[in-house]
Amino acid sequence: MKDRSKRQKKKLLLSVFSVLLAAWSLISxxxxxxxxxxxxxNQFNEEKYxxxxxxSELQDDYLYQLADGEIYSTFYNDVEKARHKNGYTAGSYxxxxxxxxxxxxxxxxxxxxxxxxDKAIFSIFSGRVSGEYDGDIGGLxxxxxxxxxxxxxxxxxxxxxxxxxxxxxxxxxxxxxxxFYHDEEYVLIKPKTVDLVxxxxxxxxxxxxNIVRSFSLNPKGTEKLKFYKMDRDxxxxxxxxxxxxxxxxxxxxxxxxxxxxxxxxxxxxNAIENPEIETKGPFTYIFKNxxxxxxxxxxxxxxMDGGSYEIQTMLNTGYLVYAKQLSIFDNCKDFMFLGLxxxxxxxxxxxxxxxxxxxxxxxTQINEEKKRxxxxxxxxxxxxxxxxxxxxxxxxxxxxxxxxxxxxxxxRIIERSKEVNDLxxxxxxxxxxxxPDYVVMKESLDLNELVESVLSxxxxxxxxxxxxxxxxxxxxxxxxxxxxxxAVTNLMENAVSYSDVQTVxxxxxxxxxxxxxxxxxxxxxxxxxxxxxxYYRGEKxxxxxxxxxxxxxxxxxxxxxxxxxxxSLNGNVITFKIIF
Length: 580
What we know:
Elements: H1 2-61, H2 64-67, H3 76-85, E1 101-107, E2 114-116, E3 120-129, E4 132-142, H4 143-148, H5 152-163, E5 172-183, E6 188-199, E7 211-216, E8 226-229, E9 237-238, H6 240-243, H7 259-268, E10 276-279, E11 284-302, E12 309-327, H8 328-398, H9 406-434, E13 443-446, H10 447-455, E14 466-471, E15 476-479, H11 481-498, E16 504-509, E17 513-519, H12 550-560, E18 564-570, E19 573-579
Parallel strand pairs: 14-16
Antiparallel strand pairs: 1-2, 1-12, 3-4, 5-6, 5-8, 5-9, 6-7, 10-11, 11-12, 13-15, 16-17, 17-19, 18-19
């Protein structure tokens, strides 16, 4: 039986684990999918805002440089004010871009220009020609051209210095372009001389005391380009991120350099002002948006009437393509981990509760099966003995053995037949009372009268036993008359069968309970809790006449009425009390 219980529990544990694992996997997958979708939506909205902000800033300050290769001093103050208002300085605007972001600006106008952070960064340098300050010069810095214009050792020296962390005083290395060429047609800046400086702030003016080392570069294709020198009141900073190749965007936007075909494809695909999310992996997506842009170019024209000025404007239109790689997992991994751990712990606790509950059910079923087997064995034993006797006496009668004892044989057959009949009826009573369909027919019942009626059958007892009835108070209860009569009868039969000789059986009656007590010197305290189990009999009463069903029937009747059966042992006096 124990091996069977272990096998059932093991099988149960495996089944529970399999079901919970499947449920946990499904719910976890749904949870992860929901978290990813929510995070995608959040980042989608965030990038829409970022892109709109960038467009606004670029149109206000910088993109005019792409549409017109020259800027005049009259407009310099407006640019300078806007740049300082937004917290930017020359050459530092695109440090906000990294490998996960690409910005591509194309102009659909006569002056076709292109700006792509996958190939270069856009910088604004101060410049002088022939000693005269020409203001800010805008153009693209190309990393490959920059590398090719110097030796590998010089580039490594610059890169290593820019990669160092600031010292304890906040000083670090900066790269300043002091001389450069400007290609107005393709809006390019080609550095000629750069200084590696060591100071606290990139905004400081360029002074010789900060210079660690100067590098002379040899850029190609500069024969027809205009040559500029940096104004000494400024610092043309080349961002460290540019030199360290942190601007590369890994080609998030496919562009072959042909502006006409690129613009045509954008229009054909209806990509303009239509943001999209492109799937690159389970947790990696690319946000893309194309927005029309307008750049107002201001030019100063000298008039003939005494040197007055007139500001002329020109509107150029184009498209700004914004792309950013979104790493969803990096942004939601903490929440996802906590959520999965919470779900896992919930299922662990649920599995433990289910296992405990189902284990109890299995143990109950095993115990019930054990009881049924014991009851069946006890029933077979109790019926076998009288049937064997009945069969023997009947055989004697048939063969006319001891003819003078025929009367005795008949009496014993009748006696044993009654015993079997009584056993069967008690089994039927127990089965009937356990049925959920059984209906208790309650009525107002005078318990005093019922008890007196039952006790009238037990006035003449053997073994010098007697009955003493004590009525504490009249008792009228709501109960089924036949069932209560059966309960009282069974209590009396139990007391008569198992009480010591020459003792008094006490019956006590009140409006709160009815009790039957008797002296039973052979009962043990440890056996009290088993007395209401079917076919249970005390160890020392095995040979006493009875079948162990009476008290089971009493307990069932009490519970059907909402009463309780209490059994107590005080010395050698055992008391059975039905409490109303």
